[in-house]
């Protein structure tokens, strides 16, 4: 057990929270923030580090991230001051940033947070977008719930 315990203690000692985006890494700024080949004009906002890693695994994001550290949830006592919102607004004000993508969960809390963030960024000169809703890749219409189907129809795009 000793090597395992030592490895865990070592990892615990090396892990830092990125002071720019809130990612978890062994360096600050994190590997993503330090990567100058990434598109500086796009910030993808995620709820937590697991969501960031999911997007990284998909190789779907060329830009930077911003980890909120949760979503607004009055029932759980999570308010705006509990999230990394000030940091996001400050980053969005940087002239290099052109777009903030809200990659938040399609849940009530996720969407409440998305509306709140959109409102916060209203006076900042930046385009705010969100992930598309709809049919999952490989999904069959017959098996989808009504909410997903109607969202897919509403957010249809030219073919
Ligand atoms: Zn970072």
Task: Please give a structural write-up.
The protein is an alpha/beta fold. The chain has 6 helices and 6 strands; from the N terminus they run αββαβαβαβαβα. It has helices at residues 2-14, 31-34, 49-58, 85-92, 108-120, 146-154; strands at residues 16-17, 24-25, 42-46, 64-67, 99-102, 127-130. Helix 3 (49-58) links the parallel strand 3 and strand 4. It is globular, with a radius of gyration of 18 Å. The structure holds zinc ion (ZN). Residues 18, 20-21, 23, 29-30, 32-33 line the site of zinc ion. The site of zinc ion (ZN) has 8 residues, from helix 2.
Short overview:
With 159 residues, this protein is α/β, with parallel strands linked by helices.
In terms of topology, how is this protein built?
Layout: H1 2-14, E1 16-17, E2 24-25, H2 31-34, E3 42-46, H3 49-58, E4 64-67, H4 85-92, E5 99-102, H5 108-120, E6 127-130, H6 146-154
Parallel strand pairs: 3-4, 3-5, 5-6
Antiparallel strand pairs: 1-2
The structure holds zinc ion.
Zinc ion is lined by residues 18, 20-21, 23, 29-30, 32-33.
């Amino acid at each position: 057990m000793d090597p395992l315990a030592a490895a865990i203690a070592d990892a615990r000692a090396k892990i830092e929270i990125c002071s720019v985006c809130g990612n978890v890494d062994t360096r600050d700024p994190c590997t993503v923030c330090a990567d100058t080949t990434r598109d500086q004009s796009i910030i993808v906002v995620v709820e937590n580090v697991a969501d960031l890693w999911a997007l990284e695994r998909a190789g779907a994001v060329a830009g930077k991230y911003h980890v909120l550290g949760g979503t607004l949830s009055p029932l759980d006592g999570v308010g705006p001051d509990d999230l990394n919102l000030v940091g996001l607004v400050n980053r969005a004000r940087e002239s290099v940033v052109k777009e903030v993508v809200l990659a938040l969960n399609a849940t009530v809390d996720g969407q409440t947070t998305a509306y709140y963030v959109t409102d916060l960024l209203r006076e900042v000169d930046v385009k705010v977008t969100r992930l598309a809703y709809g049919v999952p890749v490989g999904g069959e219409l017959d098996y989808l719930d009504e909410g997903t189907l109607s969202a897919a129809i509403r957010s249809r795009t030219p073919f």
